[in-house]
Design a protein that fits this description.
It is built from 12 helices and 11 strands. The chain has helices spanning 22-35, 61-68, 85-99, 122-127, 142-156, 161-175, 189-194, 257-270, 287-296, 305-310, 327-331, 335-350; strands at 4-11, 48-52, 76-79, 104-112, 197-199, 202-203, 212-221, 233-242, 279-281, 363-370, 375-382. The strands form 2 sheets. A 9-stranded mixed sheet has the order 3-2-4-7-1-8-11-10-9, with helices on both faces. Helix 2 (61-68) links the parallel strand 2 (48-52) and strand 3. The longest helix has 16 residues, at 335-350.
């Protein structure tokens, strides 16, 4: 398998884009990506594209990308894998370039969650990401779904609601310098704990906002990388993991097995372990989910996530900064775009160009879990030849 590099990255701000449709957001992200390819990009070089998107609010997704970006002569594949969609699109494009099928691939992720031109409501959209026969009729949309896991985690571990609040406070603080982030304001632990309850144990400030946005990456083979940049960021590893969908069939509610499987695959492909990661973008759709994911990704021991927060290790300046972009919690979460945007952040971090820069970052990890807690995707990016 050939080595694969990311040579360009761009994204829109994550916002409530009431005035823009997905047909506006997608070309904005692609144009920014193209503008940040060091030696320039001729769009005729792109041989194939992968488009991660959950909702079909504005029509046929593959056609939207081809039409709005002037890419009518290449194959465009739509990827949909719940909240793992963006990183799964990266995984598929990596395999295509690595296998030699194409030399230059475009990856785009986008979604319109806040509203849509077809008046699809958020609840109808949310039903697409749940088990519509069992979970959705019982009200097990995302907050209730993840609450079952986090409530059990708080019961079995030393972690508390205060530790969850520390995650939210950290990620809001990280979002402050990020011009693309949706919630650029600080919050306090007291505010998180006093916020209105969404579903126990989540208050309003434990939850990600509804977001619209798009992100784009350019992946190329090592054979042609010098045509585009002298500072590539290499795709070191990718992984995808699955688990049972229905909660009554899950063996352990305090862990996400798909994350463990996806991380194991990505680390093995990269030839590294969790201790080699310098910066991470971790799925924090709800504050407690970030804590569980520390353990599933190997960053903390079993039921030891709270120790990282207490020691400040996952904050900027700590041993392993997590979500320097603000994460889903504060940067925003248009699901199809999220995983791609995480890789945009890592691309900038590893090149020393991030808005909230982590010192000496050489290896980064992006992670998503969803659908409902039945799928996870992990991508490892790095710089240097090793």
């Amino acid at each position: 398998m050939r080595r694969v590099a990311v040579v360009g990255a761009g994204m829109t701000p994550f916002r409530e884009h009431f005035g823009l449709g997905i047909k506006d957001l997608v070309p904005m992200a692609v144009s920014e990506m193209a503008a940040h390819v060091d030696k320039g990009l001729d769009r005729s070089d792109i041989e194939a594209a992968w488009f991660g998107e959950l909702s079909t609010t504005d029509g046929f997704p593959s056609g939207i990308l081809a039409d709005t970006c002037g890419l009518l002569d290449i194959p465009v594949t739509r990827v949909e894998n719940a909240c793992a969609t963006g990183n799964d699109a990266v995984r598929n494009a990596t395999y295509a370039v690595g296998s030699g099928a194409v030399d230059v691939a475009l990856v785009v992720g986008a979604d319109k969650v806040r509203e849509s031109s077809t008046r699809t409501t958020f609840w109808e959209w949310a039903g697409m990401t749940r088990d519509s026969a069992w979970d959705y009729p019982l009200g097990l949309i995302a907050p209730a779904n993840f609450a079952l896991h986090v409530a059990r985690y708080l019961h079995e571990s030393p972690a508390t609601r205060e530790h969850m609040a520390m995650v939210a406070v950290k990620n809001h603080r990280h979002a402050l310098p990020n011009p693309k982030a949706q919630l650029r304001f600080e919050i306090t632990i007291e505010q998180v704990l006093a916020a209105p309850t969404v579903v126990e144990p989540f208050g309003l400030l434990d939850c990600t906002p509804q977001s619209d946005g798009a992100a784009a990456l350019l992946l190329v083979a090592e054979d042609v990388v010098d045509r585009y940049t002298d500072r590539p960021v290499w795709v070191r590893g990718v992984g995808l993991g699955l688990d049972r969908v229905m909660h009554q069939h899950k063996r352990d509610m305090t862990s996400f097995p798909p994350t463990v499987k996806a991380a194991r695959a990505a680390y093995a492909m990269a030839g590294i372990g969790p201790s080699d990661i310098d910066v991470a973008e971790v799925h924090d759709c709800f504050s407690g989910v970030e804590m569980i994911s520390y353990e599933d990704l190997g960053f903390a021991e079993r039921f030891g996530a709270h120790k990282l927060l207490e020691a400040g290790e996952t904050s900027i300046g700590g041993r392993l900064p997590v979500n320097p972009s603000g994460g889903l919690k504060a940067k925003g979460h248009p699901p199809g775009a999220t995983g791609v945007a995480q890789c945009v952040e890592l691309f900038e971090q590893l090149r020393g160009e991030a808005a909230n820069q982590v010192d000496n970052a050489r290896m980064g990890l992006a992670h998503n879990v969803g659908g409902p807690t039945a799928v996870s995707a992990v991508t490892v990016l790095g710089i240097g030849k090793d």
